[in-house]
Amino acid sequence: MTTAAPLVSYNVEVKNTGKVDSDDVVLGFLVPPNAGQDGIPLQTLFGFERVHVKAGESVNVNLYPSLTDFTYTRMDGTKVCVHLINILSALLCQLASWP
């Protein structure tokens, strides 16, 4: 059995334009629909990676949010999957047009 590819992936190039080697931390955030309303957070951290970049070089970082990162918890404790519904709708449309 093969492992499923992530639904979404982000590739970020971190470039050190300075003259000294340095560490950097790449942060990945998602912004949910209706952010800032009814207790919905403005953004949620879905991943991070610390990298060492030598002077004048660059490093690529890949961040992959999981399915649970596309949910948020309401004030009453229930979980909502707003992002996931949109993603699944798009996937179903793609599958329906599969040859």
Structure description:
- This protein has one helix at 82-96; strands spanning 10-15, 22-30, 44-53, 58-63, 72-73, 79-80.
- The strands form three sheets. It has a two-stranded antiparallel sheet. The chain has a two-stranded antiparallel ribbon with strand order 2-3. Strands 5-6 form a two-stranded antiparallel sheet.
- The protein has one helix and six strands.
- It has 99 residues and is α+β, with helices and mostly antiparallel strands.
- Helices cover 15% and strands 35% of the residues.
The string of secondary-structure elements, in order, is EEEEEEH
Which percent range describes the beta-strand content? 35-45%
Low-confidence stretches: none
Radius of gyration: 18 Å
* CATH homologous superfamily label: Immunoglobulins
**Order of adjacent strands in the largest pleated sheet:** 1-4
Identify the CATH architecture.
Sandwich
Q: What share of the residues lie within helices?
A: 10-25%
Globular, elongated, flat, extended or rod-shaped: what is the shape? Answer: elongated
Mean pLDDT: 78
Structural classification: alpha+beta
* Major β-sheet profile: 2 strands, antiparallel
The overall strand count is 6
Helical stretch tally: 1
CATH topology: Immunoglobulin-like
Number of structurally distinct domains? 1
Distance between the termini: 23 Å
